[in-house]
Every structure is written in structure tokens, then in C-alpha cells.
């Protein structure tokens, strides 16, 4: 059993339960306090995949295609999967050295999005805001 508590303003919250738990232990123990990093949330996951599709649409609308090198001259349009595999995952590997998007923590999504979007703006003139409830409301209000 591991007691879970929070530290707010340098104080242990729910310290009564924690202290009670400590009194039950016998012997010597080491107490380790570390920050818990959570994997991306379900809404964040949904936004990530929506971003992949919106970016694919924006790249296609801007006239970009993915050249398939093993078939000389063949071009295919971007898709959600191609954006994820060719753009997002490469930035993710370079920045965080992580293979899978499922291993991203909640704060790491932004660490990939910002440099990727900046690169797209500077090199391709394509700017796709990361999906959020505020962006969806703005889009709805402006339509």
C-alpha cells in the first residue's frame, strides 16, 4: 500500500492519513517524493488526432503531397496517418526521444506541437492551431 498525498504551498495535504500510515510501519524506510507525470488525457488524445487531420487537410489545400520515392513521380495526398508518422513522430523522436505518442505526458504534447508548427509556418506557410475548446468555439462563432 502506498499512501498518496499532495503537497500544496510546501505543506503535505491530508497529512493525518499519511502520519497514521507512517506510525503503522516498523523498521527503517526511505520516503521518496517525486512528481507524478500523467500520460496525455483522452481529450488531449482526441485533439492530437484531430490536429493530424486538420494539418493533413491544410497541407493538401496548400498543394503539398507526399512523394513516394519507390514509385518515381508518384504523389499521394497527406492523411492523418501520414502527418502522424512523417511529421509528428519525427519531431517527437528528435525532441523527446520517444517512439510512441501513447507515451507522451500531458505537458509533452505542447513540446512537440510548438516547434513543429513553427517549422511549418516558416518553411511551408501553413499554420494550424492546436485544437482546443476555445478554438472550436471561435470557429463556430465565425461561421
Protein model, in words:
The protein is mainly alpha-helical and 143 residues long. It has a domain at 42-141. A hairpin with a 2-residue loop joins strand 1 (7-8) and strand 2 (11-12). Helix 3 (80-96) crosses helix 4. The protein has helices at 15-24, 42-61, 80-96, 108-124, 133-141, and strands at residues 7-8, 11-12, 66-68, 74-76. The strands form two sheets. It has a two-stranded antiparallel ribbon. Strands 3-4 form a two-stranded antiparallel ribbon. It is built from five helices and four strands; from the N terminus they run ββααββααα.
Series of H and E elements? EEHHEEHHH
Q: What does the largest sheet look like?
A: 2 strands, antiparallel
Count of β-strands: 4
Number of helices: 5
Strand line-up in the sheet with most strands: 1-2
Poorly predicted segments: none
Which structural class best describes the helix and strand composition?
mainly alpha
Q: Helix share of residues?
A: 40-55%
Radius of gyration: 22 Å
Inertia-based shape? elongated
Distance between the termini: 53 Å
Strand content: 5-15%
Mean pLDDT: 82
Give the gist of this structure.
The chain is 51% helix and 7% strand. A two-stranded antiparallel sheet has the order 1-2. The chain has a two-stranded antiparallel ribbon with strand order 3-4.
Amino acid at each position: 500500500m502506498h499512501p498518496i498525498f499532495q503537497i500544496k504551498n510546501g505543506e503535505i495535504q491530508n497529512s493525518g492519513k499519511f502520519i497514521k500510515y507512517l506510525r503503522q510501519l516498523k523498521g527503517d524506510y526511505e520516503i521518496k517524493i517525486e512528481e507524478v507525470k500523467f500520460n496525455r488525457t483522452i481529450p488531449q488524445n482526441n485533439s492530437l488526432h484531430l490536429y493530424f487531420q486538420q494539418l493533413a487537410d491544410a497541407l493538401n489545400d496548400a498543394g503539398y503531397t507526399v512523394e513516394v520515392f519507390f514509385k518515381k513521380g508518384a504523389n499521394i495526398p497527406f492523411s492523418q496517418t501520414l502527418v502522424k508518422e512523417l511529421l509528428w513522430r519525427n519531431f517527437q523522436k528528435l525532441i523527446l526521444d520517444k517512439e510512441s505518442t501513447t507515451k507522451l505526458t500531458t505537458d509533452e504534447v505542447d513540446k512537440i506541437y510548438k516547434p513543429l508548427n513553427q517549422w511549418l509556418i516558416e518553411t511551408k506557410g501553413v499554420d494550424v492551431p492546436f485544437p482546443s475548446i476555445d478554438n472550436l468555439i471561435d470557429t463556430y462563432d465565425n461561421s
